[in-house]
Design brief:
Number of domains: 2
Order of helices and strands: HHHHHHHHHHHEHHEHHHEEHHEHHEE
Strand content: under 5%
Number of helices: 20
Radius of gyration: 24 Å
Helix content: 55-70%
Distance between the termini: 71 Å
Largest sheet: 5 strands, mixed
Shape: globular
Number of strands: 7
Structural class: mainly alpha
């Protein structure tokens, strides 16, 4: 019944998608697991951006610029509400699922027009609970869907216009403003255009120009402010990695993705045996398979890898799994396989989230508790280590949010530029409380005595003296 409902080419099927996604997401709202480290960081970052701070100059962090701006807008509207972020994430997933199905219908990717891919796409977004977060990955995957649509238009021989190629490049450029490692998909797109459309140098150059355009605008802005060195250091260089930090083990990621992966294998086998494609549809299938391979490369070069990092696998998986279900001849078997997919996705998510699947360890996704987090509340603080938990009840004071980027400033005070940055921080945005577990402030006070006069030390905590 569920398969039959979504198989019909009727836009009102999207209302059914809306209801199903909301129902599936209810357990995650009713039984919350607490704030994740990434969510905490983005809430603090959003507040700093809403207060008018300049990213990379007055906030030392590697979050891409468009994501930072969107977190700032979210804070202006919803404040530090974690629930608001989760609700926004659910509606973004509903939009992505709907758009993906419409994209496939408009580009005639299947032999029949169907809204089944919208359901499969939406279900795949529930393979892990951390996808239900207002995150750069979720936002960037939306932009990538726009890029896929332009790419399909370009492959279709009837439609080849320069504006399509330019928009494709701009979308890919904007995606890197949300998740920088998505630059990998520029290489994929160049390969696809050369292979499937025999694009010449002019067309490739136009797309690359579109990709570079947002970066050129950003660089020009920071050049005007005289801060290109901090832009390069805190955004571009910090995000250029060959291997990232695994927040969840590869075994845990495999367990979470095992069911979608199994259905993908079934779909490849079924399509090789049963499917009959036109030349154009065959090209689209090859594009989605290549997208899958480059999504794997993107995960390998990402700075941090969590289950949410696998969101780039969802469009090709949804494409292939939908094909598989549509090709099953016996309707009752196709219906059964769809229900097993739905139940399996939700069950693995809920069981892993509650800690009942031992091979999936989400510990690294959450902040660690400590005594400082309970002692200090409603203050503008500066934390001179990696501990972000204290920000749950406080705001960022000063410039230094990401300690990996900030620590070299405090470690080498022999450089005048480092001292200048710290001095500017305490002049323009002095924190009310400084947590210094590594005794770094002594060196700072020796270089800038006025800071020592303005603060009173209590153990490893410095408190600003009221004027």
């Amino acid at each position: 019944m569920l398969l039959r409902f979504f198989r019909i080419n009727d836009p009102y099927r999207l209302l059914g998608l809306l209801i199903i996604i909301i129902l599936i997401s209810l357990p995650f709202f009713i039984m919350p697991v607490g704030i994740m480290l990434s969510e905490l960081k983005y809430l603090v970052l959003g507040e700093a951006m809403a207060n008018g701070k300049l990213m990379y100059v007055q906030v030392f962090d590697d979050t891409p610029p468009l994501a930072s701006v969107l977190f700032g807008f979210k804070h202006l509207i919803f404040g530090k509400s974690l629930l608001a972020g989760h609700i926004l994430a659910v509606f973004i997933i509903i939009f992505q699922s709907s758009y993906f199905a419409i994209l496939l219908i408009n580009n005639k990717a299947y032999a029949e027009n169907t809204y089944l891919p919208s359901l499969i796409f939406g279900l795949l977004c529930f393979f892990s609970f951390d996808l239900l977060s207002f995150s750069p990955e979720l936002l960037a995957s939306t932009v990538l869907l726009f890029a896929i649509n332009q790419l399909f238009h370009e492959i279709e021989f009837k439609i080849q216009r320069d504006e399509i190629t330019l928009k494709l490049g701009v979308y890919l450029g904007l995606a890197t403003f949300l998740v920088f490692s998505y630059w990998v998909f520029l290489l994929l797109t160049i390969f696809i255009l050369i292979t499937f459309t025999r694009a010449g140098f002019r067309k490739i150059a136009l797309m690359v120009f579109g990709f570079i355009l947002p970066h050129a605008v950003l660089f020009t802005l920071y050049f005007y402010k005289g801060e290109t060195n901090l832009l390069l250091r805190n955004f571009y260089l910090s995000n250029l990695t060959l291997s990232g930090e695994m927040l969840v083990s590869s075994k845990g990621l495999f367990v979470l993705a095992a069911l979608p992966l199994a259905y993908f294998v079934f779909s490849v086998f079924m399509m090789n045996r049963e499917a009959r494609f036109t030349k154009y549809q065959s090209q689209l299938m090859q594009v989605m398979f290549l997208w899958l391979l480059f999504a794997l490369i993107q995960v390998l070069v990402a700075r941090q890898v969590s289950p949410a990092s696998l969101i780039t696998f969802i469009p090709p998986f949804a494409y292939f799994i939908s094909h598989y279900l549509l090709l099953i001849r016996r309707k009752w078997r196709a219906e059964l396989m769809l229900w097993l997919f739905l139940a399996g996705i939700v069950s693995v998510n809920l069981l892993s989230r509650s800690g009942r699947i031992m091979s999936v360890d989400f510990t690294s996704l959450f902040p660690k508790t400590n005594s400082s987090s309970n002692q200090i509340t409603e203050k503008r603080i500066l934390v001179l280590d990696k501990n972000l938990n204290v920000y749950q009840h406080n705001s960022l004071g000063g410039y230094f949010l990401d300690w990996e980027l900030s620590s070299p400033i405090f470690a080498d005070l022999s450089q005048y530029h480092h001292v200048e940055i710290i001095s500017s921080c305490f002049d323009e945005d002095p924190p009310e409380v400084i947590i210094d577990n590594n005794n770094l402030m002594e060196g700072v006070i020796q270089r800038i005595p006025s800071i020592g006069i303005a603060y009173r030390r209590e153990g490893n905590i410095y408190k600003k003296i009221s004027n």
